[in-house]
Specification:
The structure is a homodimer of 289-residue chains. The first copy, chain A, contains 13 helices and seven strands. By secondary structure, chain A is an alpha/beta fold. Chain A has two domains: 5-80, Winged helix-like DNA-binding domain superfamily/Winged helix DNA-binding domain (Arc Repressor Mutant, subunit A, Orthogonal Bundle); 116-276, Rossmann fold. In chain A, α8 (97-115) packs across α13 and α9 (118-129) runs parallel beside α13 (242-276). The longest helix of chain A has 35 residues, at 242-276. The first copy, chain A, is elongated, with a radius of gyration of 25 Å. Chains A and B meet through α3, α6, α7, α8 and α9 of A and α1, α2, α3, α6 and α7 of B. The structure holds a DNA duplex (30 and 30 nucleotides).
Chain lengths: 289, 289
DNA sequence: CTGCCGATGAAACATCTGTTGCGAAAACTG
DNA sequence: CAGTTTTCGCAACAGATGTTTCATCGGCAG
């Protein structure tokens, strides 16, 4: 009984010619504005389509649904997991063990994608650009993503500092934070004490706080000017860091793109420098460029 | 009057602390499941959140909205523009949409998924289980994922060591590697010299090598017994770590699953210990379990 | 303890929901 | 053309919706 959106569309398309004029009107409208179906009531939908409310009930019936709600369901399901298209594709993968986790990673990414909009990313980038200095923090499980973010950011910006708390020196590191700086904290539940310490210190000093968290209600996000939210959900025992990494990378990309040629130049020279220092080893894959 | 979704989230976040317990519950739920707000009725929303229907009206009022509908609007607007299904989204977003990068992350994940099969993961898990000691390494951009992997693994296995090269002491750390041990290295192009150093040393000592690399031909994977491959491709300037994280997490999940109750027990006690040490700060989201 | 005040829950409210029944109109059939 | 069938619109229905009202609870100051 539970139809998918695309199969419903097919059904409409194939039986369209047999429909009565009014039902055609309704069906055509439904295809043109699928979001409306999920969101508004049948009556307003009818008003927008220039059709009587009953017509939608009749349309649903002629297509084999017992009630309008059954007809409506696929439209809702399509919206719930935002870009339904990719979800549908993922469901078609074989149901072996690794595929399941893989699928869940995709779902997590999609959930994360739905939680943030472009303007939040650009606001974060703007704040970082106008910062005197940038501090990055993440503790315990989140140290990894924080390090990755700071490492790449350092490639095209000089004054990026990773707050590590190495050797218990977190407080000493924090003394460098001042007004005009931006502090960027990554964390998720359970929230480590250090992240709150950093956040509070940053707020006290008047620095701008950017939080990358699993919830806008994360304790260290309380005083944040900008919050980027990610999901850690999944069938795994452990919370997933995949989405946090995705967000960090997206932010980096935004920063590099906005930085323009200057950022690119610095990036290149940084890489050349590393190369010259003999940090890297040549790959021996002949298909390389 | 017309609020955007992110500004609404900010409003909730900033005023969350002043809310009454019940309203917090409602607010937290709304943040955790934003799609629901757009789709279901207030009454069922209340049922799912474990709150009275009135509470949502009250919440909307406290946040400055005259009616529930005004509060609900941003949630609907957010969904309306979300689905990348028909042509209607092209006109809305600027060229550098977050959806594009999001899409590429999914593609990368799918590519990675295709590169490894379940048996490779179980082989890796098997090797790790029968190891005397486990060493984890990753340098430069890959230090993050390596740290994340080691951190979680340490939660249910005692003898996991992260090779950090801190203070230039990499060689000293390597002296601990011996026959019967497993060394797990994460890395991608350009390959850092340290990763090769570690790999060669491990091979010389007779330790088993597991490589997590962007190519089976990675220099540090030459002597590896098992290679897990991931993709770093994407439209971004920077290679993506998302898939590397996904692989690491999948491996951890496999390990925990195979470890059975014993692993679970250790995991629990590790978490309890951390809790007792006051490492974490309580979350103030009442909808948590 | 009393009196107060905000927070909370239960029930009643008007309104809007999807759906039905029925009559008028239109379209087809012989 | 009449007779039949289908389509359509209107008004009414039961149930669900968001909201209001009011009684109760629980903490706290005097």
């Amino acid at each position: 009984m539970a139809d998918t959106f695309s199969s419903l569309v097919d059904k409409i398309r194939s039986r369209y010619v047999d429909l009565s004029p009014q039902q055609r009107r309704a069906a055509a409208f439904v295809l043109k504005r699928p979001e409306e179906v999920a969101i508004v009531s049948m009556r307003t939908l009818a008003a927008n389509a220039g059709v009587q409310p009953v017509t939608f009930v009749r349309l649903a019936r002629t297509l084999g649904y017992t009630a309008w709600e059954d007809f409506k369901e696929p439209f809702i399901e399509r919206m719930r997991s935002a870009p339904a298209f990719y979800s549908d594709r993922a469901k078609k993968l074989p149901a072996t063990a690794p595929a399941e986790l893989h699928l869940s990673h995709i779902k997590t990414l999609e959930a994360t994608q739905a939680l943030n909009d472009a303007s939040t990313f650009s606001a974060a980038a703007e704040a970082l650009e106008s910062a005197q200095n940038v501090f990055v923090a993440g503790f315990r499980a989140c140290f990894g993503p924080a390090h990755a973010f700071a490492y790449v950011y350092q490639l095209f910006r000089r004054d990026v500092v990773l707050l590590s708390g190495l050797g218990g020196g977190l407080e000493a590191e924090l003394r460098a934070v001042d007004e005009g700086d931006v502090v960027c904290i990554i964390g998720f539940r359970p929230y480590s004490r250090e992240s709150v310490t950093v956040a509070e210190h940053a707020a006290r000093r008047g620095a701008t706080l950017i939080a990358i968290a699993d919830s806008p209600l994360a304790p260290f996000a309380r005083e944040a000017k900008i919050v980027l939210t990610f999901s850690t959900e999944g069938p795994s025992l452990f919370p997933s860091l995949v989405s946090a990494s995705a967000i960090a990378e997206h932010l980096l990309d935004t920063l590099a793109a906005r930085g323009g040629d200057a950022a690119l130049e610095r990036l290149k020279s940084a890489e050349a420098q590393l190369q010259a220092l003999g940090v890297f080893v040549p790959a021996y894959d002949p298909t390389d460029d």
